[in-house]
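Thread title: Can someone regenerate the structure for this chain?

I was given the following input by a collaborator and told the matching structure tokens would be attached. They weren't. Posting the sequence so someone can regenerate them.
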Amino acid sequence: MSETLSLDLLDRTAGEIVAALAAGQASALDLTDAAIARIEDRDRAINAVVVRDFGRARQAARAADVALARGERTPLLGLPMTVKESNEVEGLPSTWGSPAFSGWVAPRDAVAVARLKAAGAIILGKTNVPPFLADWQSTNPVYGRTKNPWDLGLSPGGSSGGSAAALAAGMTPLEFGSDIGGSIRVPAAFCGVYGHKPSYGLVPTRGHAPPGLDGGPIALAVVGPLARSAADLDLALGVVAGPEPHEAKAYALNLPPPRHAELADYRVLVLDQHPAAATDHEIRDALDALARRLDDLGARVDRSSDLLPDLAAQHAVFSALVGAAMSRGSPGGTTMNAHEWMNTLDAQVMFCRRWAVLFASFDVVITPTFGVVAFEHVDEPDGARRILNIDGQATPYFNQIAWPGVALLPNLPATAAPIGFTRGGLPIGAQIIGPYLEDRTTIAFARLLEREFGGFKAPPALT
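Best answer:
Regenerated them for you:
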């Protein structure tokens, strides 16, 4: 097979690549070699794939070719891909962007990584993150700075910024990240790709923890896929979702199908304002345009509802919960006594119930993923002193966690999808929030938007 054909295949969706491999149009080894060559070429400027495992990837590709020749077929057989650095991959370092963990090597695969491999995926390496996954940039003292393929002077987002940058730059057709404060959805929006935050607990998080820790699930935290198409999100979710192995002996996952097959049948609530976070007018304009187009197609589109939970009150509960979850072990971290923690969890349950009531009348809620598009790299070490300029006003940097938090506190699925571009040509993303455990509805809605209005476009420098 020609090198040109292998490179062309890399720009197709993961599902199309798997189908091409199954049809004998390419070999897994040739495709893996092409992916490696592209990483070595394009990543010099971007610095997204910071842990490389090319030798073992080639071995896995040879094994995949043997399996393909035997007629074996699995959902990702022969597909080269990367995963976020914080996901444990046996034999590879996992530092979470901190020098304190330099030299730590994972003794086993994370549950989700093991499922990707069992489905036939070939792990090329791991992608960059900020220290302790606590930023919407992907810069750290271990691996350096990852840059946005749309503009090297801009952040690719975080904490799965290396994931989104590698996807947008065509270095990988599929990625696997994590999200506790927008870490899948914000990078997807900044780089113009797709990302899915699963319903809490849908995908096991074991093997995604600071090095050396192996305890229970972290409140709010999820792991999930990023891709260049909504269909690939569904493909990957089907591979990784399901109970922990020790629980699977008692029950199996049976996700409900999407609520509807056409956009015209959806009941949609579109929100563009949050009491805790400002939103740039170009993002609000893009959401307005999307709402009008959905209305023109026959969907029922509302811009407000009395059923919407109090977002300010919800954000206060979310801030307490995420503060405790993210700062565990830090000297100045958020602390609360056991009864305060229980009261916070009770408040979380109340909001989960309110959202369930709303989703009896609506199918999806569309909001900004973040209040701005990709911003210039920020080097200010003190997060409290960082600002984002939104429509000429200086706003606190971390206020923006409010938009990702809309779906996080009530444990809801949320799919990030590109919906347009700024006048300056940068991607604009939205998040599609759906009912708990109805992940296939939000992904299907994103897929319908992609069909009707278009989806991922490669950055100009790469076309």
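Residues 414 and 433 are 4 Å apart (CA to CA).
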